[in-house]
Amino acid sequence: YYVSEIIGVEVQSVDGESLGQVQEVIHTGSNDVYVARGPRGETLIPAIAEVVKEFDAAAGVMRVRLIPDIP
């Protein structure tokens, strides 16, 4: 996908929680990271298959399974 197709997309957890919209794409050495801003504040989403479970560009929705925080 092109960055222009990802910016502005609504991000939801697989459980249906709204995480906001993708505001920025950070390019790293291994994979991109999507920056979503919404009700939780800023959420960083690694663009990997284990996290991004569904992306419907036509509907403008991305569903993700977040990686739990590890203390």
Number of helices: 1
Morphology call: globular
Distance between the termini: 33 Å
Fraction in helix? under 10%
Structural class: mainly beta
Q: Write out the strand line-up for the largest beta sheet, numbering strands in chain order.
A: 4-3-2-1-6-5
Radius of gyration: 11 Å
**Spans where pLDDT lies below 50 across 5 or more residues:** none
Largest sheet: 6 strands, mixed
Strand content: over 45%
What is the count of β-strands? 6
Order of helices and strands: HEEEEEE
Q: Look at the structure and give the mean pLDDT.
A: 93
Index terms:
mainly beta, 6 strands, 51% strand
Describe the structure.
This protein is mainly beta and 71 residues long. The protein has one helix spanning 3-6, and strands at residues 10-13, 18-27, 32-38, 41-46, 52-56, 61-64. The longest helix is centred in the first third of the chain and has 4 residues, at 3-6. The model has no long low-confidence stretch (mean pLDDT 93).
Question: What's the short version?
Answer:
The chain is mainly beta. The protein has one helix at 3-6; strands spanning 10-13, 18-27, 32-38, 41-46, 52-56, 61-64.
